[in-house]
Amino acid sequence: MASLQLLGFGSNGWGALLLVATLMTLAVTATALAIGAVLGAIIAFAKLSGSLVLKTLGNIYTTVFRGVPELLIIYLIYFGGSSAVTSIGKWLGYEGFLGLPSFAAGALAVGIISGAYQAEVFRGAYLAISKGELEAASAIGMHRGLRLRRIIIPQVFRFAIPGLGNVWQLSLKDSALISVTGLAELMRTSQVAAGSTRQYFLFFIAGGILYLVLTSLSDRIFNKAERRANRSMPAATIGQA
């Protein structure tokens, strides 16, 4: 009974804080995925380009940020970024330590990691597009912008959805590492609740269940998006030009 009261939503319960922390986890993961999508698209373009320099830079990015431990990247962004901001502040005449906001630093770090994986997802999705379809589009006079809007983007999105679902799950789990910055996301709140009440098993199990709920719902959403994209693709034909 005491354990249920601790998980309740009253003045003595942690339930409300855990739900708020769950929303914070979703917010930082969604922000990181958006950052990663922009970076991933840029890196995928570089790796698909005919430029040796761009390909090399793209390969370096994906190799480094897929190979270096996620926690190390978070430390570098948060503490290294805070040191850089403090140095700039001193140069501008401000005395004292200036730290990066935990949310911004965490989302940026996870977004950079996510971008390395999304780059490979986008690159693979582009390579999966039928070359005959692109050649047919050029043959009927589609200019590059129209091909991009009518064929490439819809097809890339269609083929990328399963991979993006995996990247989302990866980013969702990586968000737990942001707890080292002090951000009150799900993992951090579970740790604080467990330490405050000495009910370690209760709150870590509760946190694990909430993570499983998030991943299960995410799976359903991405699966539904994939089915919808596959149903709608026949309408996105070249003849619509």
TrEMBL record:
PROSITE patterns xref list: ABC_TM1
Which stretch is the leader sequence?
Answer: none
- What CDD domains is this protein classified in? TM_PBP2
Alphabetically list the UniProt keywords.
Cell inner membrane, Cell membrane, Membrane, Transmembrane, Transmembrane helix, Transport
Q: Which InterPro entries match?
A: AA_ABC_transptr_permease_3TM, ABC_transp_permease_HisMQ, MetI-like, MetI-like_sf
Q: List, alphabetically, the GO terms of the cellular component aspect.
A: ATP-binding cassette (ABC) transporter complex
UniProt-recorded name of the protein: Octopine/nopaline transport system permease protein
